[in-house]
Amino acid sequence: MSMRLRMVWMALWCGLVVVALPAGADADVAAGPPADGPAEVSASDLLLQQSLLHSATSLTYAPGSPPARGARILALTQAAAKLNPKDPKLNALLVRVLYEPSGDYARAAEAVRTQLEHDATSAELGLFYLNLGLAARQSVADRIAFLQAASEDAILPAYTRAEALAKMGDLRVQHGDRELAAKAYADALALDERLFSALFGQFALSDRQDVAAHVTGLLGLLHASPTYAGGAIEAGAVLRTQGLAHPAAFFYAYAWRLAARDMETPDETLAIQYFDAMLDAGQYRQAIETMVPVMARTKEPNWEMLCQLMEAYAGINDDQKLADIRGRLLQALSDREQAEGRLRPEMNRQLAWYYLISDALIRDDRRIHTAGAFARKAIEELRDAGADDPTLQLIVAVVQAKDAGKRFLANGITAAEFEKQIADLAALAETDAYAAYFLAEQLFLVADRQAVTMKPAEILSQGMALAKFGRPMRLMRQMADRHSVPVPAPTELAITIGELAEQWIVANQPLVDMALLPGQHIRVTLRPVSQTFEALKPMEIEVRLRNTSEVDIPLGSAGLFNPVVTFRLIAESRGVKVDFDNLPSAILPAPRVLKAGEAVTVTVRIDVGELEEYLHRRPLDTTSFILSGTLDPIQKRRQIVSSLPAVMIDRVTFDRVDILGPSFDRERGDWADQYQKTLQYTIGDFRNGTLEQRMAAARVIGSLLTVVGDTSTRRLAPPKQLAEAVQAPMLLSMFRAILQDPNVPVRQEALAALQFCAVDGQIARQMEPAFTDPSPMVRLRAVEVIGSGRPPNYKTILERFANDKDPMVSMVARAMLEQKPQPRTR
C-alpha cells in the first residue's frame, strides 16, 4: 500500500473512550491489575470476570453519555482484573480505555505484552507493543535497552523481533551513529528479509549517487511493500533519467493505479509525470485513454496536460484532434490573459512558455512573437531577476534566433550576422536541451548555406546527450528521424539498470497483480457462530481472512491492507428496521506476511452498546439480522469505505429467537401459555441449574422487568399476544429470590440485567438486600442500576453508597451524583 494516512487500525487501539478518573479516586486504585495474579481462576471467578468485562466493553460502545461512564468502566475493569489479570481481552480493554489515553505507556506496554503471551501472531499488535515501550522510556539508552531485550524475547515472533532491531537502527540514525544503525538494519533483515522498515532504513543510509544501488534499493522496497506508490514513482523517475522509457512507464502506471485507490481527485503532479512517461515510451493511445477522463475532472484547463494531449494525438496522426486540442490550449491561454488584466510576472512567464511549446509541437511559428512579448514583459517586471531567469532567457533567445533565421533565408543578413544573432541561443544550448532543439531547428533550415559554420547534426546530438527523457528528447528524436541523425546509444549504466528493472518486473509480476487486483487474491468471510441465536445469549461473529493466491501477501501499515474488519448490522423486528454501525471491529491476529493459502480467523462478540440495549429490551421479539463488513476502513469523500473496494465481503443473515424458544409455533400456539412455561423453565434453571444457567436466568428476569418498565413508560410494548401476560408481581418475586442466591456472580448478574430498566419504587424496594450485600461487586451493580434508572429516592441511596467502604463503589456513586443522564436514542 502507499504510505497512506488512513490509520483506522491504530485508532482502534488509541481508544474509543477516554476514561477520566473521577475526583477523589486514589492513584493506587487506578493503577491496574496486580503484576502477579492467581495461578488458576475458578469457574465462578471466570464467569464473574466475563460478566464484568462484557459490561465494561459494552459501555465503551454505548451511544450518548451514559451516567458515570468513565467511573463505571474503571470500576468494572479493576474488579475484573483482580479476578483474572492475565486475560487478554481485559488487557486489551485496559490499554484502549485507560492506560494509553491517560499516558501510562509503561503499563500499556505490559498489558499488550500480556496479550502477546496469549497469542503473539499479530504483527500489528507486536508493533504496537514496541511503540508503547518506546513511549514509556525517555532516554536513548533506555530505549535501546528495551529494543535489544525485545529483539531477544522468545515470546515474540521473528518479524516482531526484527521490527525492534529496525527501530533500534532508526534511533541510531537520529543520534548520528550510522555504522551501528547499518548493523541494526542488517540484523533485522537477517530475521525478516522483507521487513520494509529495515529496508527503508538501509535505503536512507545508501549513497544516492550510485544510481544502480539506488534503483536496487527502490526495487527491494517495492518487493517488501508492493503497494508503496512513492517507491514506484521514484523508480520510474530514476529510470527515465537514464532514458529507459518502457520500464519507467511500467512503474509510473503501477504507481498511478495504486494511487487511484486513495485519490478523491487526480493528483495533477503525478498525472503529468505519468503521461510524460507514456509519451516517452510511445504509448500514445494509452496516454489518450488515461488523460481524457482525468482532464474532464479538472476544474480548469491544465496547460501542460493539453500540450501532452497534443503530442499524443500527433503520435497517432489524428490531425483533427490535434487541431482541436491546440485550439483549446490557445483559448485557455487567451482566456487567462484576458481574465488576469495586468498579469503577474509568473503568469507572463507561463504564457510565454506555452505559446512557444504549442508552436514547437505543431511546428508552427505563428505565435512566436506573442511568446516573446510575454517573455520580455516578464523580464521587465522582474527587473534584474528577470534577466537571470533561464526560462525567460531561453524564450527571448529562441525568438531572436527565429527572426535571424527568417532574415538570413531572405538574404537580409549575412551568415556571420546570422551566427552572431543566434549566439545567445548557442550558448544556452551547451547546457539546455530545449535550447539545443530550437538551435538545431534553425540550423537545419539554413543547412544548405555553405557559409554557416555551425553543424545542426552536431548540435542535435549534443542536445540528445543532455536530455535522455521528456519533451525535449521526444522533439529531438523526431527531428533526428527527419534528418537521419543517429540517436545516442544507451550507456553501460542504463543497460545495467534496465536489466535490473526488467528482471524485477518479470519476477514480481504476480506480486504486482496482487497489489493492483487484491480482490482476486484474498477472501474475507463472515459467519455467525449460530444461525439462530438464543435470546440474551452472546452474539458472536467469526471473521476469516484467507490468502487465495500463490503469492505471499504483506499486511499492516506497509503492506497491502490492515487486517481489520468493521461491521454494519441491520436488525428487523415487528417490521421495523434499525441500523447499527458502532460495533466492535474484528482485528485479525495476522502475521506480517500471510503466506499463500494461509488463513487467520477471529471471533468477535458484537452485542454491546446500543445493540445490547436493543436486544435486552426485546426478549419477546424474534429479530432478523443482515450483517455486512468493510475491510480496512478509510475515510473517503466523508464516507467510510474499504481501502480495497474490489474486495467484496458477502453479507450474512441470521436470527435471534425470543425467549419463548425456537420450537414454539408463533402462528398457531398459545403465547400466554408458552410465556408461563418459559418462566417455569427459568425458575427451574435458577433452582437446579449450573452457575452459568442461574446467571442466564437472572438475565431473563432483568430483561422482562425492563419490558415491564418500558410498557409503563410507553417506550416499547411487548407483542400484542403477550400484552396481558407480562406482569410485574411474579417477576419482582423472582428477582428478589435471585438476589438471595449464595453466589456473587448470580446476584450481580441480576442487577446487571437491569442496566436499561426504568427503575421505579417497587424495583428499588426489591433491591434493598443488595444495598448491604457483603460483596462489593453486588453493591457496585446496585449503584449502576440506581444511578442509571433513577427511582424517586435515588439521591438518598447514592449518597449512602458515596460513603461505601469499597473505594470503587463510592467512586461510582459520587460520579453518578455529579452527572445528568442523557436521553437514549432508541
Describe the 3D structure:
The chain has 826 residues and is of the alpha+beta class. The strands form four sheets. Strands 2, 5, 6, 7, 10 and 13 form a six-stranded mixed beta sheet that branches. Strands 1-3-9 form a three-stranded antiparallel beta sheet, with no helix packed on it. A two-stranded antiparallel ribbon has the order 4-8. The protein is elongated. The two termini are 40 Å apart. The model is unreliable at 1-21 and 23-38 (pLDDT under 50).
Number of strands: 13
Helix content: 55-70%
Structural class: alpha+beta
Q: In angstroms, what separates the terminal alpha carbons? A: 40 Å
| Largest sheet entry | 6 strands, mixed
Q: Ranges with pLDDT <50 over ≥5 residues?
A: 1-21, 23-38
Number of helices: 38
Q: Tell the overall outline.
A: elongated
Radius of gyration: 37 Å
- Overall mean pLDDT stands at 90
Task: Tell me the strand percentage band.
Answer: 5-15%
